[in-house]
């Protein structure tokens, strides 16, 4: 566990996360009003509004603010990355993927609505994400909005999430070394967190150097997120996690604890936190505080 320091006295990360998550939840609710066909929209809202830590949207908002941008400029991309993330969870849980029955403490989307509706709900959320950026970034210079769209698209496709998922599925039951495991999680998990931060920095008006610095920061916390996820999968119960524990072990998937041991995985997590925080040293300390604490939050999470 990482220790708190004097920064905690002047910055409450818990309050920051709560306020940003509330703003994102309100914006997500407004982005997807109930309408015909009810079955599809209910399915989309069921997963999109199911709660969660909202790490990716908060990352986008914090990166925008770090660049001196207004939170309002980043709300559309914050919502979009959560829509993409939700799509990935719906599809990841399908019988043809990980075949999970529980997500965030309740039935997965395909259990609640059926496989075909869940599949289409994920597709519709992906389309809505790009529409939401294109329409919602009206006050942002067009070049910045276009770059955010391109960044998000890259994070989802054959250079991002889809690539990581394919290699992950193909690797089940086979010996996998650390380079392949890193490839899987850089693409399947870290890439979307990276895009969240980069999109926030882009619409916030960051320079090229600043944007690339934030990219490196986010790549590290993206890997950190997966390392901690792997550790929790073998150290927590299904009730604690809100999803099925031990699924990776059952599917004979490579994980960081499997390759490095639990202690080795935790040591790697500490390296990633330190590296991520070091990337923030060039920025104003007050503006960087949310991102610094976000790295520690991910490292210390218990579910």
TrEMBL record:
Leader sequence residues: none
Family, per entry: Belongs to the FPP/GGPP synthase family.
Keyword Transmembrane helix included in the entry's annotation: no
GO biological process: isoprenoid biosynthetic process
InterPro entries: Isoprenoid_synthase_dom_sf, Polyprenyl_synt, Polyprenyl_synt_CS, Prenyl_diphosphate_synthase
Pathway terms, separated by semicolons: Isoprenoid biosynthesis
One of the Pfam families matching this protein, by short name: polyprenyl_synt
Source superkingdom: Eukaryota
Keyword Cell inner membrane: no
Name of the protein: Geranylgeranyl pyrophosphate synthase
Cofactor(s) listed: Mg(2+)
A cellular component annotation (GO) from this entry: cytoplasm
Keywords from the named record: Isoprene biosynthesis, Magnesium, Metal-binding, Transferase
Species the sequence originates in: Eleusine coracana subsp. coracana
SUPFAM superfamilies: Terpenoid synthases
Stored CDD domains: Trans_IPPS_HT
GO MF term set: metal ion binding; prenyltransferase activity
């Amino acid at each position: 566990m990482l220790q708190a320091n004097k920064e905690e006295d002047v910055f409450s990360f818990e309050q920051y996360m709560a306020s940003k998550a509330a703003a994102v939840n309100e914006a997500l609710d407004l982005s997807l009003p109930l309408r015909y066909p009810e079955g599809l929209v209910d399915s989309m809202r069921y997963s999109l509004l199911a709660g969660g830590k909202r790490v990716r949207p908060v990352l986008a908002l914090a990166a925008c603010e770090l660049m001196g941008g207004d939170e309002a400029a980043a709300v559309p991309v914050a919502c979009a990355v959560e829509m993409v993330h939700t799509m990935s969870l719906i599809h990841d849980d399908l019988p043809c993927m990980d075949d999970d029955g529980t997500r965030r403490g309740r039935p997965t989307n395909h259990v609640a609505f059926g496989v075909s509706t869940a599949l289409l709900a994920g597709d519709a959320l992906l389309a809505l994400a790009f529409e939401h950026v294109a329409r919602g970034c009206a006050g942002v210079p067009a070049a910045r909005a276009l770059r955010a769209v391109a960044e998000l698209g890259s994070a989802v496709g054959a250079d991002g999430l889809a690539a990581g998922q394919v290699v992950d599925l193909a690797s089940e039951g086979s010996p996998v070394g650390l380079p392949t495991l890193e490839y899987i999680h850089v693409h399947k998990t870290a890439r979307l967190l990276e895009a969240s931060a980069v999109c926030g920095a882009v619409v916030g008006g960051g320079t090229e150097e600043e944007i690339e610095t934030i990219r490196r920061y986010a790549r590290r916390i993206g890997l950190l997120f997966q390392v901690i996820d792997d550790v929790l999968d073998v150290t927590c119960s299904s009730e604690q996690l809100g999803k099925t524990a031990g699924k990776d072990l059952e599917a004979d998937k490579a994980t960081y604890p499997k390759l490095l041991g639990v202690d080795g995985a935790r040591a790697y997590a500490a390296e990633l936190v330190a590296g991520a925080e070091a990337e923030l040293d060039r920025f104003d300390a007050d503006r960087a505080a949310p991102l610094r604490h976000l790295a520690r939050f991910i490292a210390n999470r218990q579910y």
